[in-house]
Amino acid sequence: MKPFITGHEDLVHDVVYDFYGRHVATCSSDQHIKVFRLNRETNEWHLSDSWKAHDSSVVGLDWASPEYGRIIASVSYDKLINLWEEEPDAPECSGRRWTKLCTLNDATGPLFSVKFAPGHLGLKVGAIGNDGTLRVYEALEPSDLRSWTLTSEVSVLRTPPASHLQSDFCLTWCPSRFLPEKLLVCALDQALIYQKDKNGKMYVAAKLEGHEGLIRSVSWAPSIGRWYQLIATGCKDGKVRIFKLTETLQGKGGEGDDDDSMSVDQAEERSDSKGGAPELNVELVSESADHRGEVWSVSWNLTGTILSSAGDDGKVRLWKASYSNDFKCMSVINAQQRT
């Protein structure tokens, strides 16, 4: 592990890789976003551009799916979502390489988390902040990236908190292209899975129970080769939790319904035949307090087989399922050594 000197003049709040891992974007309380480019020959990161993105602390970033171009979304304490597009012909480090596409300003409080939907769902972005409201926007015309429409607005918290921290709110989208659109929203100590009903309205389909503190981070695993979904959370109570999500038909009990779960195709076919969406079943499959302190970040790898977590102990831990499907810590990484 090597130190990464960003050049920011204040606290760095978020660090996000693009899809290919060749660029990384950072944001800070200095109101700036910086994008770094990887030199694959030297394996060093070089500053590509830096610009003032908001009039307050920039606390969240995300890259859009590459099929829609090189687009970054940012959120800030100034209550705004800004969308940025790269101008590849502009000189590096000129401050003009990234131009603002548009500003989305429906929030009534500071925003803390922003995530683009998987590419197969279209060009959508979701955000949540201190007003406790999830908002989803969509570019209905991909040829016009300056025009976005608010398509969903859901009150996650009935009463917004009087005070806030950046990490009190986070969200993640279900990456599977074989399941109906879903996203997980964490607000304070609540973790709620939302999906759309037949009228296109978001509703709470399931809850992730058992958190005993503020949920700092959440990550939905890619489900390559798996018939079920895995979701990880990092919590202020010091625990890394992994949940298993399966789908069953609501009101099962007829002949052939004795399985606890079914394939995606079966679920969709039987859902259509009975006019209802499959029921989401959530099971806690792993819970660990190895960090011995607050857990700040969790993230799955590209295949959803290894989970990384970071906590107050200053270490990154890597988790992998054993043959018996128990998640074990396979490696601990710190700044001095790897064990």
UniProtKB/TrEMBL annotation:
Gene3D superfamilies, per database record: YVTN repeat-like/Quinoprotein amine dehydrogenase
One GO cellular component, as annotated: Seh1-associated complex
Domain of life per record: Eukaryota
Bilayer topology: Peripheral membrane protein
Chain segments carrying region Disordered: 251-279
A Gene Ontology biological process term: mRNA transport
Localization in the cell: Endomembrane system; Nucleus, Nuclear pore complex
The entry's keywords: mRNA transport, Nuclear pore complex, Nucleus, Protein transport, Repeat, Translocation, Transport, WD repeat
Pfam families xrefs: WD40 (PF00400)
The protein, known as: LADA_0A02718g1_1
Origin species: Lachancea dasiensis
